[in-house]
Amino acid sequence: MPDVQYKGWRIEAQSYKSDGGRWRPKALVSIDEGGRLRLPHVPAPLDVMCDTAAEANAYAVQMAKKWIDNKGEAHILRM
């Protein structure tokens, strides 16, 4: 899945296959703020598992967008 741009942030889906064969959604979000790159990981809740990589990546991107909407600006302001 290609990286997604959202509100100035770049979202990279990094879902991975678990030991049980199902997929765990995970995303890396990044933003360049004044020459400083911020790279928080946004993991899914532990109970979220998907049957395919595509499904997990789609979930990861939506989860990252929610994180950006809810915490992204505050995360930048803390730095």
How would you summarize what this structure contains?
With 79 residues, the chain is α+β, with helices and mostly antiparallel strands.
How do the helices and strands line up, and which of them pair or pack?
Layout: E1 4-6, E2 9-13, E3 16-17, E4 23-24, E5 26-33, E6 36-38, E7 41-43, H1 53-78
Antiparallel strand pairs: 1-2, 2-5, 3-4, 5-6, 5-7
What does this structure look like?
The longest helix is centred in the C-terminal third of the chain and has 26 residues, at 53-78. This protein has one domain (4-78): Double Stranded RNA Binding Domain. It is an alpha+beta fold and 79 residues long. The model has no long low-confidence stretch (mean pLDDT 86). It is elongated. The protein is built from one helix and seven strands. The strands form two sheets. Strands 1, 2, 5, 6 and 7 form a five-stranded antiparallel β-sheet that branches. A two-stranded antiparallel sheet has the order 3-4. β5 (26-33) and β6 (36-38) form a beta hairpin. Helix content is 33%, strand content 33%.
Task: Report the radius of gyration as a whole number of Å.
Answer: 13 Å
Which spans of ≥5 residues are poorly predicted at pLDDT below 50? none
Percent of residues in helices: 25-40%
CATH architecture assignment? 2-Layer Sandwich
| Overall SS class | alpha+beta
Number of helices: 1
Q: Can you tell me the CATH class?
A: Alpha Beta
